[in-house]
Amino acid sequence: RAPLLMAGAKAGGARVVNLASEYAGELDLSDLQFEKRAYDGTSAYKASKQADRMITAHAAEVLFPAGSGVTVNACHPGVVTSKLLKGLGMSSGFNSASEGAETPLFLAMDPSVAGVSGRYYVAKKETPCRFSGDKRACRALWEACRAIHDRVLGGKGPSSEL
């Protein structure tokens, strides 16, 4: 298992914060890498953010269950002004980088969420996640990601230990 996280757990707790998005959906478990359908950047982004939330829920339940000393949560940082958005012609009206960091930092450091795991947050508030309730789908995604990882890396790396 992830050695740094386990060391953090032994030292009094570790927190994993995954960045997701409210702009999520369209995940096709039978075609994670768009091999059977035309690639679409928007669909790929939305699917990846849905996957972030599902992996978070699964990891909190299976990889780092209650009592492990590790919490795993996901959050939407808001839409943050960035070079990417500027390149797309959208450069104003969004959160600053500091504002975008508020919820991830809250999950990483605030005592009020110590021990809270497997949840999704928006603007420092727990928000229901429509994707994480299907435990079978979360497990299937986890296994599919492991298979892709092992295929690409030849079975080497931390995935083989999980």
TrEMBL record:
Going by the entry's taxonomy, the superkingdom of the source organism is recorded as Eukaryota
UniProt keyword annotation of Thylakoid present? no
Q: A Gene Ontology molecular-function term?
A: oxidoreductase activity
Key word Ion transport present in the record?
no
Q: Which Gene3D superfamilies does the entry link to?
A: NAD(P)-binding Rossmann-like Domain
InterPro entries found in the cross-reference section: NAD(P)-bd_dom_sf, SDR_fam
Record's keyword terms, sorted: Oxidoreductase
What is the designated name of this protein? Protochlorophyllide reductase
Q: Which organism is it from?
A: Hemiselmis tepida
Lineage of origin: Eukaryota, Cryptophyceae, Cryptomonadales, Hemiselmidaceae, Hemiselmis
